[in-house]
Amino acid sequence: MIIVMKSNTNESDIKDVISLVESRGLQTHLSTGSQITIIGVIGDKSRLSDCNIELLNGVDKIVPVTESYKLANKKFHTNSSIVKVGNVEIGGSDFIIMAGPCAIENKKQIIETAHTIKKSGAKILRGGAYKPRTSPYSFQGLEEEGLKYMAKAREETGLPIVCEVTSLKSVETAAKYVDMFQIGARNMQNFYLLKEIGKTNIPVLLKRGLSATIDEWLNAAEYIMSEGNKNVVLCERGIRTFETATRNTLDISAIPVIKQKSHLPIFVDPSHATGKRPYINSLSKASLAAGADGLMIEVHPNPAEALSDGPQSLPPKDFDDLCDELRPFAKLVGKTL
Amino acid sequence: MIIVMKSNTNESDIKDVISLVESRGLQTHLSTGSQITIIGVIGDKSRLSDCNIELLNGVDKIVPVTESYKLANKKFHTNSSIVKVGNVEIGGSDFIIMAGPCAIENKKQIIETAHTIKKSGAKILRGGAYKPRTSPYSFQGLEEEGLKYMAKAREETGLPIVCEVTSLKSVETAAKYVDMFQIGARNMQNFYLLKEIGKTNIPVLLKRGLSATIDEWLNAAEYIMSEGNKNVVLCERGIRTFETATRNTLDISAIPVIKQKSHLPIFVDPSHATGKRPYINSLSKASLAAGADGLMIEVHPNPAEALSDGPQSLPPKDFDDLCDELRPFAKLVGKTL
Amino acid sequence: MIIVMKSNTNESDIKDVISLVESRGLQTHLSTGSQITIIGVIGDKSRLSDCNIELLNGVDKIVPVTESYKLANKKFHTNSSIVKVGNVEIGGSDFIIMAGPCAIENKKQIIETAHTIKKSGAKILRGGAYKPRTSPYSFQGLEEEGLKYMAKAREETGLPIVCEVTSLKSVETAAKYVDMFQIGARNMQNFYLLKEIGKTNIPVLLKRGLSATIDEWLNAAEYIMSEGNKNVVLCERGIRTFETATRNTLDISAIPVIKQKSHLPIFVDPSHATGKRPYINSLSKASLAAGADGLMIEVHPNPAEALSDGPQSLPPKDFDDLCDELRPFAKLVGKTL
Amino acid sequence: MIIVMKSNTNESDIKDVISLVESRGLQTHLSTGSQITIIGVIGDKSRLSDCNIELLNGVDKIVPVTESYKLANKKFHTNSSIVKVGNVEIGGSDFIIMAGPCAIENKKQIIETAHTIKKSGAKILRGGAYKPRTSPYSFQGLEEEGLKYMAKAREETGLPIVCEVTSLKSVETAAKYVDMFQIGARNMQNFYLLKEIGKTNIPVLLKRGLSATIDEWLNAAEYIMSEGNKNVVLCERGIRTFETATRNTLDISAIPVIKQKSHLPIFVDPSHATGKRPYINSLSKASLAAGADGLMIEVHPNPAEALSDGPQSLPPKDFDDLCDELRPFAKLVGKTL
């Protein structure tokens, strides 16, 4: 941590800052320039968490130089993590596709979809039982009934299943059925929920918030991990910008940035990122080429009749074509699809 | 709702769209131009919620012309709402200030603050017992113990109290103590929480999400109201933009926009909006002048020792000066402070 | 400037960085921590402008601690500047309103408008002769003919005139007529144009770019000032965000931020900021209350027939009412309108 | 164009709107619903450009249904355009890489770079002679002297050359040397400059503005094309968002969006998009996989000594490796590199 003092600071203010910092058992280094004086702070800065140094007289600003997340940080865990979901390994040499409908609508829909996506090459089945919808008047999900259909689909196909949870109650219910929790973008900073999930050992797909910085996203992962659950997979799904041609703006750079800053696997959800079916093919290839560990893609037996997110869902035939097109790209980056 | 067809659409696709819409008991009006054909849909569009018209052949896009929120919409409730918190009326002729520390730290701190802000002119005491913090290693709040101190402060001063809730469990606990719930920016689209709060009749201060549009914000209010709780007060607290000189960007335009679109009262929180004490005075005056119904301001007996958000908290003396400076502005807009 | 080294840096890399910095006549201070090593650099950092220190082995990042703008910086010019436009003083005890049509359309329109806004209390006449329009098929302005009408309006009313310039050619032409140049948002980083204007001594209204940070904006002012022209007035006109309820998002916080960082006067243009007439009244009051030195407001004798920006223009009667409503607010902040 | 009327509009207001529209020779279609009335307008909407329909009594809003750009629009030019720069074809079956230093610094630097990038596979040499820099105190470019060095480099290697222009004067000078103009992000809406370039027939690389929507970008292309110059290549270079881990946020979705909306070729500049060398490899592959027609990459013989943008420049060895890694990806998408 670096403390930058205001240009006209007097000696006594500088001494006060140094005294306070050193009183907590930390060391300081003083650099006095003609325009500016800076104080380097050496040691565990959490010892200063109860004093607001930037409010002391003469202090201009504080510049943090270390990240606040530790368990998710590559600096301290240099090997890439592999997260196991059922018998599927995420973050290893396989390029993993999770697919399925935005919302589980009925038993037939989810079981049919499971069979079809498995045949195309998907390894994990997704499906929403608890739907966070912008309007209270939109379809809100089948809840536990939907989870039962998902479990049935797993029984028939052997595919592990992933479902979004939105509350402690849904965590408790879903824990009985799912192989992986999903935390949606709107709940990325629902810290209470993150902690509850951290207390389980069920793997988690942690979607990036609509306006979350990568730093905040890794701190959200830290919430889960600091409770004991290390099985976190990140999922970029587009951020909110001024551009309206797409539903969100896929931050493709997040892939190399996460690979540099963290050891956790990273997925991309091109369905939510664009909100439009014609762009999914292009962005799926881009994500694979950029180094993603996998994709989450919405597939619906009949998108025109989907109760949620139809416009961004692929019909089975298009999904099958997409997998075929992705295969040689996967091979090129040394992965198996 | 307007359905815009692609420029090269054939007759039969147009007929199919019209048939589907009319099969749900809605009426259509067809406008055929040289370049473009549009189909106006007349009637309750919720009857179409299970069909994704934009996926039909020939459809270019759907243009909604009515808002999806009803109970929060000024069109259907033209009189401004007044929300009563304890004996305080929000949205009427009083300009209401809620003040207090970001986090309740101990009994002495909150009681002292309550006395001091009351003397300055604040009408409601705020204090955080459940703190959503970006890092899991930051102070997380005193929880129920904190609520008890708040209740004690109310007992001593008569000020109603408002506290943030972040989960069903905290709703259940806080309901025993508080006069008003606060939904924080990070939970604005925690729809599960919104519904739970909607089932109570305790007033709610609903903060705008960091990247929520005004339309999404009013839909979040709709979630609460559609469960029966109509006592919603909106609170603008800055949105996330590229500018880094302030913690967030206060969207001052939200005040007249909300006044035009909704009948609900609107507050501004200049403390979170800027994150910096020197700008609070200026933005408080601006908010009052722009037509806000009140302010939420962080006050701490000793900001330099605050466990949370010290840099944006005012010391009691500055808060007192601020109230004095605001009073003539309130008078000018016909309000009492 | 602070150089933060990577956590695993070796001694020799650190020495190399220090050697390079010191070879330019600068001093260094080394702070070695358990996790991180930082090197403070003391002296004129422009001596390092030809070496990219962040590319040296072991360097993690560079943290600048001083601003790159000097002439626009309040640190070095603590008194607020007053800019004189004709006989009007901007930045002093008068609250100045510039008003007029977005585009000059004909002689009658501009002269009538000049008379009417003068009567209402405006001190400077605005009007566009060179219009930057998103589409090449929109009205582009009357050019020199328009400037002549403006000059005629000044002759009749005594009001100084301000016009946007968009190229060297328009600067040369406009210099013969106007009392103040305007640099529009889209040209805020047209550095070539800024320098040309810097070579004149005609005052400049420098609008903030649609996505310009406050730091970039002050650097744009620096471009003009470093060529010799110190008569710069800043104008906040809304930034681009995800919100679509308004044309742009007025960054009201820019007012106190600029007042803290710079000595230059600051205006607000609520017409462009919102793009909608019903919000102008509210934002004008907010800007005045927040500490702005003046407003730029679009007024058109008949907005419904305006060739440009009609929806955000006030008719004369509304403008007159607005001035009347603003007067007591101006008095309250110690200014004359 | 669709005119949406307010919910409480009376008959006479509706008639007035219809009369006005029809008085310009356009047709209308009226759809009257229980809540809302809409008026479809059929015909050439430019006939309405001098009347602000949204200001008429009873009008709620105008919904445009056709794009304002025509020449750049795929609807009217369904075949993909090929732009010829020297003997290099952009938009065809070759994947084209433009490479070179951000700024031309001296003759040796640019000629060496030309030879090295040619050997690696680049087809066009880039180099900046007029540098738009945020601070006036940064290196501003060698101007005409730099262009002469570029021409010399072309003479030695046969590579066509592309240079940024920032003013009419630089257009006139550069026209004597370059094979392609570049319009930088900061000048994307410098409409005066766009028109001047439109009057030449020299191909143009049009970079997207930092906060330009895709719609505005295509309108900027329209400015050039409407003056007669159809040789426009678009270049995505990152947009401005709240994320700070990268210099800008590469909008990878712009590639499929542009391919759908326009017939013009699209490039990506991963150097400016990220501002950081370690991410360039990953984003180059992503861009190619997503369907881009080429890349613009900054290469400097010794980035650590670059006068501009060193941190995002590749040294020749890394560039050579990148080209080798990209080649199989190009083959996979059916292109030659």
Describe how the helices and strands are arranged:
The structure is a homotetramer of 337-residue chains.
Chain A: E1 2-5, H1 11-23, E2 27-32, E3 37-42, E4 59-63, E5 83-85, E6 88-90, E7 96-100, H2 107-120, E8 124-126, H3 144-157, E9 161-164, H4 168-174, E10 180-183, H5 191-198, E11 204-207, H6 214-226, E12 232-236, H7 254-261, E13 266-268, H8 270-274, H9 280-290, E14 294-298, H10 316-332
Parallel strand pairs in A: 7-8, 7-14, 8-9, 9-10, 10-11, 11-12, 12-13, 13-14
Antiparallel strand pairs in A: 1-3, 1-4, 2-3, 5-6
Helix pairs in contact in A: 2-3, 2-10, 5-6, 9-10
Structural features, described:
The structure is a homotetramer of 337-residue chains. In chain A, 33% of the residues lie in helices and 18% in strands. Chain A folds into two domains: 2-63, Phospho-2-dehydro-3-deoxyheptonate aldolase, domain 1 (Alpha-Beta Plaits, 2-Layer Sandwich), CATH 3.30.70; 83-332, Aldolase class I (TIM Barrel). Chain A has helices spanning 11-23, 107-120, 144-157, 168-174, 191-198, 214-226, 254-261, 270-274, 280-290, 316-332, and strands spanning 2-5, 27-32, 37-42, 59-63, 83-85, 88-90, 96-100, 124-126, 161-164, 180-183, 204-207, 232-236, 266-268, 294-298. Chain A has an eight-stranded parallel β-barrel, surrounded by five helices. A four-stranded antiparallel β-sheet of chain A has the order 2-3-1-4, covered by helices on one side. With 337 residues, chain A is of the alpha/beta class. Chain A is elongated, with a radius of gyration of 23 Å. Chain A has ten helices and 14 strands. Chains in contact: A-B, A-C, A-D, B-C, B-D, C-D. The interface between A and B is large, with 47 and 47 residues.
